[in-house]
Amino acid sequence: MESSELQRICNWLIDGDWSTVEPAEMIAEFCERLVAAGLPLWRFGIFIRTLHPEIFGRNFIWRQGGEVEIGSVDFDILDTPEFARSPLRIVFEQGLEVRGRASDPDSKRFPFLEDMRAEGATDYIAVPVPFLDGSIHATSWITQHPGGFSDGDIAAIRSIIAPLARVSEIISLRRTAEMLLDTYVGNRAGSRILGGQIRRGHTDTMQAVIWLSDLRGFTALSDRLPAETVVEILNQYFDCQVTAIRGHGGEVLKFMGDGLLAVFPIDEYVGDAAHVCARVLEAARESRASVEALTFPVGDVVERFRFGVALHVGNILYGNIGGGNRLDFTCIGPAVNLAARLEKITARLGRTVVASEGFANVCRHDWRELGEFPIAGFSKAQRVYGLAEETPVVMA
Question: Which of 85, 108, 290, 355 could form an S-S bond across to 240 if both were Cys, CB 3.0 to 4.6 Å?
Answer without folding.
Answer: 290
